[in-house]
Amino acid sequence: MLFNSYGFIFLYLPVVLLGFFQLARLNHTYAAAWLALASLFFYGYWNPAYIGLLLASIACNFAFGSWIARAAGKAGREKGEGGRAKHLLTFAVVANLALLGYYKYANFFVSNLDALLGTDWNLVNIILPLGISFFTFTQIAFLVDTYQGKVREFNFVHYVLFVTYFPHLIAGPILHHKEMMPQFAKPATYRFNYENLSVGLTIFFIGLFKKVVLADNLAYYVPMVFDAPAAGVHLTFVEAWGGALCYTLQLYFDFSGYSDMAIGLSRMFGIVLPLNFHSPYKSVNIIEFWRRWHMTLSRFLRDYLYIPLGGNRKSKLRRYLNLTTTMLLGGLWHGAGWTFVIWGGLHGAFLVVNHAWHAVRKSLGQDPKAPLSRPAHLASVLVTFLAVTLAWVFFRAPDLHAATDIAKTMLGFEGVAIHSDHAISTRGMMNWLFAALAIAWLAPNTHTIMQSFRPALDAPEPTEKTRFIWRPSGKLAWLLGGIAGYTLIFLSGTTEFIYHQF
Fold first, then answer.
1. How much is the average pLDDT of 52-61?
2. I want to staple 139 with a disulfide (CB 3.0 to 4.6 A). Which of 61, 202, 208, 471 is the partner?
3. Is the backbone peptide bond immediately before 223 cis, with ω within 30 degrees of 0?
């Protein structure tokens, strides 16, 4: 089931909301259980066979979390218990990664082994369970937080809800136990609130507009370019850049739109989710980009991979190696393919160059965090955006041949021809690109618009000055109604979210 479908908006969501708040009048545990069951139905609507896998993962991780907590608690009183807690944590994390590795990387591993050894091993094509990366990472974070003593509550119903909670289950954000469990325990969460409903609906329809009107219209032009190399079509410089930019903006509005919808849906239930996007294409460098793009994944990679590897606590060389390793594994997390590894490697290289440049500036007595002049700021944003766009080519391309072919054309190795004889039309593409770029670079983001109502957890303070601050009013209600109505018309062409496949 997709957020951008009539069945979800007009049937599933009203029924789940009504059932949650009606049951909450009787008992909060009943309401939490209802929401957990509704979330399992939402997940199973895609493929009921994988509900068992999800529930088994939840039961095993909750059991290991309980054992780790008891062992870690005894560690301060009994010699040897600290080691037992660490062994339990290691086993549980490895088991989670093994499960993820089997479903996500077994086909990739066998196909590469066949190519290397010239064999032809027959492996049944393994279907990737929906959202497995997100619910696996969420539970690994729970296990590590438990070992570190950050988890205080072990309520099984709340834990099931924490993992399966339908707004975040399919494509994030990646949640921390300590962020969500206190909210599920608050009595105020179970009381219907008109402000939460209006704020949630506003954020939801802003996200739906991003997905349906912007991302899906940009998506029309993307396959024309990325499928061209396989069809023997030689792209021009303009077509290659046009297709790459269309995908760059499609991916942003698709995933940012989903994250807005997740935050809006959750707010209707009185639950506040963490922010996942904060205008990343306005970043002045790659370091800032990764603080603004898929923020909960960046946080996870930092806390559970980069810092345990040593972070920046050792030598500069070790720091750069840690950055590169983190980004390579982050690329592989997104997909089982060499194109994803190269994408991660490119961002690792970008980060190394960015940190090295900061080090050079510090050695010259300059402050890398000092505000830039207006021209320098604009130039930095443009250079960062173009680097990110080039890297996205490897993220989207079906194979290395297509990625390198398009990248070489973008870099001018195939000349800078503008006109071609084939059927890729750039006029409509350019219209959508100009509109999407104007919104991404010039318009305030959802968090800035909704800043008066604490739309997300631990969100940075808005730095943009804007007159578009949302407050309940008749005019804004009519405007939102117009946006919602216009967006709902386009739902007949429902498309999946890009990040569902990761």
1. 94
2. 61
3. no
Q: What confidence tens digit (pLDDT) does each residue in 178-202 have?
A: 888 889 889 999 999 999 999 999 9
CA nearest to 494, candidates 231, 219, 309, 266? 219
- Would you say the C-alpha torsion 394, 396, 401, 404 has a positive or negative sign? negative
Give the pLDDT confidence score for residue 434 in this predicted structure: 93
Going 316 to 321 to 327 to 333, the CA torsion angle's sign is: negative
Cα 99 versus chain centre, distance? 21
| pLDDT value at residue 77 | 45
CA dihedral 489, 494, 500, 501 (to 10 degrees): -150
The C-alpha R_g of the chain, in whole angstroms, comes to 24
Which two structure tokens, joined as six digits, stand for 28? 């909060």
Q: Token pair for residue 181?
A: 């469990």
> Which sign does the torsion angle of CA 229, 496, 456, 151 carry?
negative
Q: Tell me how many helices (H) and strands (E) the chain has.
A: 23, 0
- Helices 237-268 and 374-396 sit at what angle, rounded to 10 degrees? 90
**DSSP per-residue string spanning 20-67:** HHHHHHH-HHHHHHHHHHHHHHHHHTT-GGGHHHHHHHHHHHHHHHHH
- Do the Cβ atoms of 351 and 363 come closer than 8 Å? no
Q: How far apart are CA 6 and CA 4, in angstroms?
A: 7
In the chain, what are the domain boundaries? 6-192, 196-283+418-501
- Three-state secondary structure call for residue 274: strand
Dist. CA 273–CA 313, nearest whole Å:
31
Cβ–Cβ < 8 Å for 258, 167: no
Please provide the size of the chain in residues: 502
pLDDT over 70 for what percent of the chain? 93
pLDDT digits (tens, 9 = 90+) for 324-349: 999 999 998 888 889 999 999 999 99
The mean per-residue pLDDT over the stretch 46-59 comes to 89
Contact call for residues 164 and 34 (beta carbons, < 8 A):
no
In the block, tokens 């830039």 appear at 372
Give, as one character, the DSSP assignment of residue 457: B
Cα–Cα dist 55/260, whole Å? 27
- Burial level of 463, CB count in 10 A (0-12/13-18/19+)? exposed
Q: Which residues pair with 274 in a beta bridge?
A: 457
Q: What is the reported pTM?
A: 0.90
Identity of residue 330: G
Start-to-end Cα distance in the chain: 16
Annotated catalytic residue within 334, 347, 355, 447: 334
* Contact criterion met (CB below 8 Å) for 129 and 50: yes
**pLDDT tens digits, residue range 125-140?**
777 788 888 889 899 9
Q: How far is CA 201 from CA 70, 194, 223, in A?
A: 42, 10, 32
